[in-house]
Amino acid sequence: MSLSVLLQVDGDVTGKRAFTWEDLTAIDPQWQIPDVSQLGPTRSGGAVWMRGILEAVKVCPEAKYITLHSKRDDFHASLPIDAILDRGMFIYRQQNQPLAAAAGGPIRFFIRDHTDCHNGEIDECANVKYVDRVEFSKQKGFDNRPLDDDAHEALHQQETP
Q1: H helices within 75-133, ranges in order?
Q2: Which of 17, 70, 124, 160 could form a disulfide with 75 if both were Cys (CB 3.0 to 4.6 A apart)?
């Protein structure tokens, strides 16, 4: 395996961190999800629960938002931590290898039962692919998700480079 950075985590944390694939696999087993298809039948691979990342970087108690950044397609989503704390996961591997770009890698953020969150800020586009940076903050961060149905449809019709 390569020691290249897959995920940079910063913002309102006491331990800013750059995670390699090896670092993600070393997160406490209680936070590992060996097979995400058990939680989301349209997904596959292995993941780490959001709580595992929060624990690893020691998110400050005043942080209320997590902002997911994807440099590859310039996509950003800022979500309230409390709404997804027990539902959010970072899919980072497939068949014991780093998640390929074709599957949304290096990291694909997925919210189990995202339609059940009953929060207007949590929608299908909160499941962000190509995540390479995560930022925790007191206020909502940069978010360029579509705001209406037409823009949502246009986004989903685009082919990602």
Answers
A1: 81-84
A2: 70
Query: 67-105: per-residue pLDDT in tens?
Result: 999 999 999 999 999 999 999 999 999 998 999 999 999
DSSP label of 123: S
What pLDDT is stored for residue 32 in this prediction? Answer: 97
Backbone angles phi, psi at 82, to 5 degrees: -60, -30
Please name every residue paired with 109 in a beta bridge, in sequence order, or none if there are none.
90
Q: Strand locations in the chain, DSSP E?
A: 5-11, 17-20, 32-33, 46-49, 65-70, 75-80, 88-94, 97-98, 108-111, 133-137
Nearest to 12 by CA among 71, 77, 49, 58: 58
Q: What is the 3-state secondary structure (H, E, C) of 1-39?
A: CCCCEEEEEEECECCCEEEEHHHHHCCCHHHEECCHHHC
Between vectors from CA 88 to CA 86 and to CA 89, what angle results, nearest 5°? 120
What residues contact residue 17 under an 8 Å CB cut-off, 6+ apart?
8, 9, 10, 23, 56, 57
- CA-CA-CA-CA dihedral for 42, 92, 120, 137, to nearest 10: 180
